[in-house]
Here is the input.
Amino acid sequence: MQNMVNHTRSEDASRLKSRMGSYAAPNPDKDLVSPPIHDDSKSRSKMGFNHPQLGPLLCPAKFLVEYNKDPAKSQKKIQAGSLRVMAALWPAYLYPGDSPGQDFDPDDIIEGLFRGYLLERVAKHIFTSPSSALSAGASNGTRPCNAKIHGMSVVEAEHIAYAAVQACFGISSLNKWKDKDGLFHYNNFDYRIMRLIRERRDGEWVDSLLAYFNE
Here is the structure.
């Protein structure tokens, strides 16, 4: 069973690789991320926090103001461990806004959480089709989507968590899947998202979030 999970995760990551340059861009119809992401490159060393547009997406939203003031200094702090990027801190790409974390409210970190454009596009890519990821309309792809293949009728907490993990890994500097990237543990991140959605007492917030992903 675990081998099957690993294979599916690897396949999804591989198919996403060539699309991240457009998915990570706020307005891909106008510009892709710059410097461009080359899907044929064997090395991803210039991605993640080493990329001027991907770094802010991965930065914990609560540190984003500090990060944007001096990205180079913040990157050194991340490498030294004094600025801790962990699964316990929500990354900026989970929040809405044309720039990463633009709509993040430090006094209400739940507001807008899981409604960032990158997460939405990755979820559509995985569960509907790549052709639907950048559009609001129905898929025009010819290949059956994962949702139909696995008999999935609605997006639930585990699907949002899975897409969030794939989005995070997809813009990271990791060349291959690992359970953690520095201090950031993907399994903890996945579990934390599922637990928040499933156990959140604010039923209205949960219903609104799930409705958003099931439109």
